[in-house]
């Protein structure tokens, strides 16, 4: 089929309608079929159409001068090669269920394309994910690395499900040991509560996050610092991330989850649900409006997958905790 360029698009005559009807290419008009640059370049590459006065090389040279075009084209080509019908959408693309096309099916994925160095602003990303959910679509990030390889991520913002009410904790007294505290009330913390680290049978050391949580819930009294004001002022001096970590820790405990340090995994918390013996989640606490490079997120997701855990980033917003989950997927 022969086509012509019309600015940023490529236009076919009415004979192009067959491409739409059979394979879901382009947008039908009374005059013919209008193709996006990604669609046109793919069809030229596959020798399905020719464009007057243009070659594949001239078209790719022209189109690739636009920011992000090559990344979008690589994702478009990959989806087509996998048998999906893919069209420009509210993010970068909308993708139909395999075997379906416009007029006979509905879109299943919304895809946002980005590079390995792009910054992810979690608040903005959460908004896009929630918008996709309202449209009953799955939100997918397609990351293109410097060697033009593609990795797809399923992104969700579901709040953690409550595993049960937070267990009651009796009041205990303790003494300070740096920014941790030590209590002799070891019987107040049975193994099921999973607080602290035993020094011996008579002494239990509580971490700074545990200490702040127990102070906030009124369950802990410190000798010489009854209201905990001194230790509350001292903990931030050693931990610049204490505020968001403390908010996330408190929320997880309130939902019946047990957060423990995930230092060996490079994150803030490994999280146990209910009475399970193995942690299911890695959670990293972030301040409001936080951003991270996609490369950092990729490393975190790969590590979490290797130890059979889900990877969640928790943004401590004023109106609550916004959890964003990333998982590698094969489409």
TrEMBL record:
One of its GO terms (molecular function) is tRNA-intron lyase activity. Its EC number is 4.6.1.16. Coiled coil: none annotated. It is an enzyme of class 4 (lyase). One of its GO terms (biological process) is tRNA-type intron splice site recognition and cleavage. It comes from the Archaea. Residues 1-57, 180-226 form the tRNA intron endonuclease N-terminal domain. The keyword tRNA processing applies. Keywords: Lyase, tRNA processing. The keyword tRNA processing applies. Residues 69-152, 244-320 form the tRNA intron endonuclease catalytic domain. Pfam families: tRNA_int_endo, tRNA_int_endo_N. PANTHER family: TRNA-SPLICING ENDONUCLEASE SUBUNIT SEN34, TRNA-SPLICING ENDONUCLEASE SUBUNIT SEN34-RELATED. This is tRNA-intron lyase. It comes from Methanogenium marinum. The gene is endA.
């Amino acid at each position: 089929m022969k086509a012509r360029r019309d600015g940023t698009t490529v236009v076919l005559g009415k004979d192009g309608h067959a491409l739409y009807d059979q394979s879901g290419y382009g947008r039908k008009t009374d005059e013919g079929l209008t193709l996006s640059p990604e669609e046109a370049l793919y069809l030229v590459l596959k020798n399905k159409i020719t464009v007057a006065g243009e070659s594949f090389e001239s078209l790719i040279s022209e189109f690739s001068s636009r920011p992000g075009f090559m990344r979008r084209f690589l994702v478009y080509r990959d989806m087509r090669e996998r048998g999906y019908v893919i069209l420009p959408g509210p993010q970068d693309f909308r993708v139909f269920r395999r075997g379906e096309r416009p007029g006979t099916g509905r879109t299943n994925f919304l895809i946002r394309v980005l590079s390995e160095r792009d910054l992810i602003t979690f608040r903005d990303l959460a908004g896009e994910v929630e918008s996709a959910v309202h449209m009953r679509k799955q939100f997918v990030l397609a990351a293109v690395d410097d060697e033009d390889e593609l990795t797809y991520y399923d992104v969700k913002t579901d709040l953690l499900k409550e595993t049960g009410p937070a267990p009651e904790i009796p009041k205990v007294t303790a003494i300070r040991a740096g920014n941790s505290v030590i209590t002799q009330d070891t019987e107040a913390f049975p193994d099921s509560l999973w607080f602290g680290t035993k020094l011996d049978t008579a002494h239990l050391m509580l971490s700074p996050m545990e200490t702040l949580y127990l102070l906030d819930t009124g369950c802990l009294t410190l000798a010489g610092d009854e209201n905990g004001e001194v230790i509350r002022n001292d903990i931030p001096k050693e931990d610049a991330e204490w505020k968001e970590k403390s908010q996330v820790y408190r929320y997880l405990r309130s939902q019946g989850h047990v957060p423990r340090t995930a230092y060996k995994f490079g994150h803030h918390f490994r999280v146990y649900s209910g009475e399970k013996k193995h942690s299911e989640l890695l959670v990293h606490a972030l301040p409001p409006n936080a951003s991270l490079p996609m490369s950092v997120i990729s490393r975190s997701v790969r590590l979490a997958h290797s130890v059979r855990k889900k990877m969640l980033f928790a943004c401590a917003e004023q109106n609550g905790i916004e959890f964003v989950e990333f998982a590698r997927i094969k489409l």
